[in-house]
Design a protein that fits this description.
The protein contains 5 helices and 27 strands. By secondary structure, it is mainly beta. Strands 2, 3, 17, 18, 19 and 20 form a 6-stranded mixed β-sheet that branches. It has a 5-stranded mixed β-sheet with strand order 1-12-11-10-9. Strands 4-27-26-25 form a 4-stranded antiparallel β-sheet. The two termini are 19 Å apart. 39% of the residues are buried.
């Protein structure tokens, strides 16, 4: 699935802010009392100074070689051992996020929250909000589940009384088992605690990158170009700045033009309980191992196809340049979406002598950790051959911890999947027979 360049962020994030007891919990209030506690606090300056741990060699991934080599077919069993299916409703309430919980998966069918368990009907979670009350972080998340405490947190917004603007909050919900058992819905105004998420000078979009039970993260921005991130700022829920992490970026020209082409992609996600991120105009993928320790993990080598910041800001011709458009990871592999720019010379029907555009291919590259190889997938499917149960070819739409998922209409599955009667397809065949055509299907691999 292609995502346009700068600042599209699809991934789950865990901040790994290892602080001892910074939250003061309040008991769950009575249903519908409308007395949510807004936690106000005078923010403090950075509590930690960032340090870089270079004790481990940075893994280099040659994107240039992968593009130039012949495509190779990969099997789903090379990056997963199981595949499960869940019916997640029709398009009336679109699924915008998936969370892994012990019982199964929590899905935000915006604005409704459901628990999906294998072989069971979905269960509505006892929280109610309007569509307009849900906020989404830059990573695309509106919910967070703390696996240790069993607590849910929501990123929400409220229209302040007698005001024309909305205030953003991280809302602390009751524990999952408690909120599942509620007979009456809990509303935003009845949440135990609401933590305000203020804007910072230079914020260009949503107030935060992502959040967890201990705090949230924002992109720090360049002083001369406030909408280009150059690192990450982390905060606790009270709004104290914890640490500022810088990223090794390309050098920029002294004078910047008024207009230029954005060609890169910034994102963040959680891997092995560590915040992992890539910043625009940096080819390094970093992990935050503790509140102040930064680890360079991977370097993406684009070779002669690299579109550096100085090149982008000084020239408009991007032919033969490539840049990242998607990034995900599990224990077996990294999943890279890469755009390769073709020739753009055709100006329109009035320019009869102009050469027509050359198509810009999109590559899906997989870096296999065990063999340390970067492989480009064949153009036919741009996906893994599903040898686990003979289902649809797979490429992740999103990730929830170590789980990857795709969402497709049931009608598409029934049309595209060929059932051959093999034992491995027994469960899949029974599922397809029972699911209505107008429903969407969540396919999860792990």
């Amino acid at each position: 699935m292609k995502k346009k360049s700068v600042y599209l962020f699809i991934s789950v994030l865990s901040l790994i802010l290892l602080l001892d007891g910074c939250l003061s919990k309040q008991a769950e209030q009575n249903e519908g009392d409308g007395n949510a506690t807004v936690v106000h606090h005078s923010p403090k300056s950075p509590l930690y100074t960032a340090q870089t741990n270079n004790s481990r060699p940075v893994v280099s991934i040659s994107v240039e070689n992968a593009i130039q080599n012949q495509p190779a077919t990969l099997r789903l069993s090379q990056i997963a051992s199981s595949v499960d299916y869940y019916v997640v409703g029709d398009d009336k309430y679109r699924v915008t996020q998936i969370l892994k919980v012990p019982e199964g998966f929590i899905a935000l069918n915006k604005p409704k929250i459901y628990l999906y368990r294998k072989g069971m009907k979905r269960k509505r979670v006892g929280f109610k909000a309007e569509y307009s009350e849900w906020a989404a972080s830059l990573a695309g998340n509106s919910l967070y589940y703390d696996s240790e405490s069993g607590q849910l947190y929501g990123y929400i917004k409220r229209l302040e009384k007698d005001q024309a603007y909305r205030t953003y909050y991280i809302g602390e919900m009751p524990k999952l088992d408690s909120i599942l058992a509620r007979q009456r819905y809990l509303f935003i105004d009845s949440l135990p605690n609401l933590y305000p998420v203020p804007y910072l000078p230079g914020d260009y979009s949503d107030p935060l990158l992502d959040f967890n039970e201990k705090g949230y993260a924002k992109f720090s921005t360049m002083p001369q170009i406030t909408y280009i991130p150059n690192g990450i700022l982390t905060f606790n829920l009270q709004g104290d700045t914890l640490c500022r992490f810088s990223a090794g970026m390309d050098p920029f020209p002294k004078k910047l033009p008024d207009q230029y082409r954005h060609t890169d992609y910034a994102t963040a996600y959680s891997y092995d309980k560590q915040l992992t991120f890539k910043i625009t105009y940096s080819d390094t993928i970093y992990r935050i191992a503790s509140p102040n320790i930064l680890i360079p993990a991977y370097h993406l080598d684009f070779g002669k196809h690299k579109a550096s910041a100085s090149y982008i800001f000084s020239r408009q011709e991007m032919q033969h340049k490539a840049w990242l458009t998607d990034l995900k990871e599990n224990q077996y592999a990294l999943f890279l979406g890469v755009h390769y720019e073709g020739k753009r010379t055709y100006e329109g029907w009035l320019d009869k002598n102009s050469e027509r555009d050359t198509a810009s291919p999109e590559y899906r590259i997989v870096y296999l950790k065990k063999s340390r190889q970067a492989v480009v997938l064949p153009e036919k499917d741009y996906a893994f051959i599903n040898d686990l149960d003979g289902g649809l070819p797979f490429w992740p739409d999103g990730q929830a911890d170590g789980y990857f998922y795709m969402i497709r209409p049931a009608k598409e599955l029934k049309k595209e999947i060929r059932l051959n009667g093999s034992p491995r397809q027994k469960e899949l065949a029974a599922f397809l027979k029972a699911v209505p055509d107008d429903q969407n299907v969540l396919m999860v691999v792990h």
